[in-house]
Design brief:
About 50% of the residues lie in helices and about 5% in strands. By secondary structure, the protein is mainly α. The chain has one domain. A hairpin with a 5-residue loop joins strand 2 and strand 3. Helix 1 packs across helix 3 and helix 1 packs across helix 5.
Length: about 220
């Protein structure tokens, strides 16, 4: 797989999570075509940053000391690159994921988002926060058209009559594009192993664990 495709998949999944959370929190949209029971690996950015720092320190300390340990591709922990002299060098891969120890589904994620959005409403709330996943693409399209598309069109009509610029239907069209582009990522899930990440955590001192906290579940 080319790096461009990897980056596209990563960015797309990031936009998916952000779109679900923002759409649910504001109440602007409340559905998407996908599988709510699928795994959603959502990691706070500070945890990812801490793990990156810890991984960089570990590589600076040990260098290529563990090059003879090449883990299987199935674990997703390391791969190998061939050097100029023909020798193989392992490349450690640290997956910062919560799925193996502390999994959360899309249904659970949007349920929590809906609950806390009602407890602590954000700015620009248009409707009661809620979210549903539909297996049927047609059913979701019809639901979005009646629930969001038609009201957006009517609101923009009143805005035009009052001299204001229309904006709601444009937002609706953007969510339609997001739903279409990210359909594949919502209807599929990826389960990553984090064995190398746990070994990295075990190699850290207690002080380092307190400074660079990145544990996402019980080891």
């Amino acid at each position: 797989m080319k790096m461009g495709k990897v980056q596209h998949a990563t960015i797309s999944r990031y936009l998916l999570r952000s779109g679900c959370i923002i759409g649910c929190a504001t109440g602007f949209v409340d559905s998407m075509n996908g599988k709510g029971e699928s795994l959603a690996d959502v990691i706070p950015v500070d945890i990812v940053s801490n793990m990156m720092v810890a991984a960089a320190v570990e590589r600076a300390r040990n260098g290529n000391a563990n090059n003879n340990v090449i883990l299987s591709k199935k674990e997703g922990s390391a791969s190998a690159v061939v050097n100029g002299d023909g020798s193989a060098t392992s490349i450690p891969v640290y997956n910062c994921v919560s799925g193996p120890y502390n999994p959360i589904s899309w249904n659970e994620l949007v349920k929590l988002t809906s609950y806390w959005s009602r407890v602590h409403p954000t700015e620009g709330v248009l409707w009661v926060p809620e979210w549903n996943f539909y297996d049927s693409h047609l059913r979701n399209r019809v639901h979005m058209a009646l629930r969001t598309g038609l009201p957006s069109f009517v609101l923009d009509l009143f805005r035009r009559l009052s001299g204001a610029r229309p904006r709601f239907f444009r937002m609706y069209e953007r969510f339609q594009k997001v739903d279409a582009v990210l359909h594949y990522f919502v209807t599929h899930e990826w389960r990553w192993a984090n064995d190398s990440t746990q070994r990295l955590l075990d190699s850290m001192s207690e002080e380092e664990k307190q400074v660079f906290k990145y544990e996402t579940g019980n080891s």
